[in-house]
Each structure stands twice: as structure tokens, then as C-alpha cells.
Description:
Elements: E1 3-11, E2 14-21, E3 24-29, H1 35-45, E4 48-51, H2 53-67, H3 84-93, E5 102-103, H4 104-110, H5 117-125, E6 138-139, H6 152-161, E7 166-167, E8 170-171
Parallel strand pairs: 1-4, 5-6
Antiparallel strand pairs: 1-2, 2-3, 7-8
Keywords: Cytoplasm, DNA damage, DNA repair, Methyltransferase, Transferase
InterPro entries: MethylDNA_cys_MeTrfase_AS, MethylDNA_cys_MeTrfase_DNA-bd, MethylDNA_cys_MeTrfase_DNAb, MethylG_MeTrfase_N, MGMT, MGMT_N_sf, WH-like_DNA-bd_sf
Family: Belongs to the MGMT family.
Amino acid sequence: MEKAYYARFMTNLGEMYIASSNRGVCKLKLEGEATKDFFDWLGMHFEEIKEDVEKNQEAIGQIVAYARGNLREFDVKLHCIGTPFQKKVWQALCSVPYGQVASYKDIAIKVGTPKGFRAVGMANNRNNIPIIVPCHRIIGHDGGLVGYGGGLDMKVKLLQLEGIGINGGKVATR
């Protein structure tokens, strides 16, 4: 029986919820996302859900440090739950360095489906571990911010935190 352990915590980016299994972090809910959706997702994937701050302390500490601008690279185990294609895309997202961006097309090429930028967009949308799996660094081919599960305001905050300029809804320098 697989269990998930969750915790609620505050950062300067707002209130967040995190969940981990014994394999690693599996879900992160950003400020502005529905708490009900977080628990519904956990209920679909785990037989038991238990509050446990201690099990999530290392990841929480890293997210808090990132939000303060004191961490550039995460070092926590991940338990990515998705299709093989989604996992391939999420792995590619993790290769986009702090302070840099890539387009959906760039990621599609990287995962071997050059015309699959829409499929990459859908996989990006299904990323359950935002920030740690940095889907906020993925933008449109024209530099546009496009969508973000945590809302475009959060995407702008995250990109600006990493030193990326935004002008008129687009990345200013690429």
C-alpha cells in the first residue's frame, strides 16, 4: 500500500502544499491553485494520505531557499507520476538551467519529436511538481509567456526571481 505524506508551508511566493511518497516528492501546489485539486490528485494515486511535515522538510527547505533567491538547483528525489512521454518531457525541463528559458519547440526537439510542441505543452501542463521541475522556464517560440498552471502572475514572479526580464508579456532577452 503506497502512502503519500503532505505538508502545508509558507514562502515569500505564497502558501504551498507539498506531498511525497517513499520514492520522493510527487506533488507541489502553488498559491492560487485549488487545495481540493491537490487532495483529489493524491486520492487518485495513493491509498493512504497522511500529514507529515518531517517527511517533506528537506524539499520545503529547498523551495523556501529558492523563493528567497538563495538556491539555484534542487537536490531532492522525485516521484514523477505520468506517462513515459510526460516523464521524458519533465526530464528535459530539468535540463533547462536556472535563469534561462527554452521554447516548447526546443523541448520537443530535445525529446525527439520536433513537431510535437503541442504534446510537450500538454505534458508541461500535467507537471505535478512545478518549480522543482521548472516548467515556468518554458515559453512560446516567439518569447511569449503562454500559460502556466500556477497562473501567469506566478510564472512572471518565478522568471523574474531567476533574473529573466519580462516586457509586454514576453521574455525580454533570450
